[in-house]
Amino acid sequence: MKYPRLIVSALSGGSGKTITSLGIVSALKAKGHLIAPFKKGPDYIDAGWLALAAGQPCYNLDTFLLTPSKIIQLFLTYTQQESISLIEANRGIYDSIDTQGTTSTAELAKLLQAPVILCLDCTKTTRTLAALVHGCMIFDPKVLFAGIVLNRVAGVRHEGIIRQCIEGHTGVPVVGAIPKLNDNIFPERHMGLVPTSEHQWADNAIDSAQHVAEKYLDLQQIAHIAQQAVSLSQTNITSPAKISHQTKTVRIGIARDAAFQFYYSENLEALSREGASLVFISPMSDTKLPDLDAFYLGGGFPETQSRQLSQNHSFRKSLQESVKRGLPVYAECGGLMYLGQTVIVDNTPFEMANIFSIQFDLSTRPIAHGYSIIKVAHPNPVFPVGMELRGHEFHYSRVVKWNKSDETLAFQVMRGKGFWEKQDGLCCHNVIAAYTHVHAWGTPQWAVGLVQAARNYQAKKGP
Length: 463
Hints:
The chain is built from 13 helices and 24 strands.
């Protein structure tokens, strides 16, 4: 079946993928196109920006966390024949965790039979770019390079030379040329872009990207490239998953505010499919936990909101009391930090929820950054012992002090760093917290286990 689609990739990070992707999404949407946004890789922040630009959720297609059949199934679930699907890549087109390129954007492009628009940083170079494009084409002839976007061109003459060289030597059309921009539309922090929730003028930034696309990109040709994508083969692929409308039997709280914002849309929808009603909560501003059957604390930047989190004494006390009563809590990365005793920011300690006797501080360099493989070694509220699962880590926080007391670690880290000495999954009471992030489509047991823990708690506490 025909599913209009394209991938926006580059030779390396920092080449203009983000402004190109967001510009195309917002500009085509303004022209009346229905856009289905996707992000290649595990990134939460870029996905958040794409969702804002498209006006609907963005989903992650990760070639390490998901099997090829799951990637196609996920894609088919969240795209439509009448929409244009744009997939923003990560890093360079052929970059991967291994020398075979198994997790590269190129492999995703071949799997989805999607044409690629390649973004090129044109700073201080001209004809060499044609050689690089030609090299990409012959490196793997099965990857379809359908268009080129030039970024940071110095002027009309500079653009003209590059355009003629690329089109003349490779036959790939140049579909846009973005000049050097004076304004930094999308400011960055150590983990990439600043999240939409922390960007004071996020909507204005999207408008600026749209203006760039409308002025410098051939949007009609880009839409045509997507619409000319070949029919997507569905051989040996199960039918797309459907969102269930069954009666919601348990209430799961979701911490969502400026401190906690890293959630895959797929994860939240998986909880809903399993029968959970989602209740969004702010540990920064809410005075207490409502009546819940489980609580999910995702990742984020609690360190940037540490003062407000610390000052919300009533919420922290409410969480402590709920944990003592047996409330199931699942926390990832930033959520783990919040469940600790203190977080030290700029030499100032801030009290957190004090569920675990841990002190955290922040390094100036990443403590862990990459994919992980973990094996469940000990009993916990969500995963069965013996299960192996894949995830990813990216954090600057580190453990300064840990009073182990009655706390145990449920996960053995086979690849990655984890929380402590190649272990992760800190457990106490009915709480499990880890640095590892998981994706519900790659680890279906996550949603099944958390909802079951909620049901067990609901039955225990009674009406």
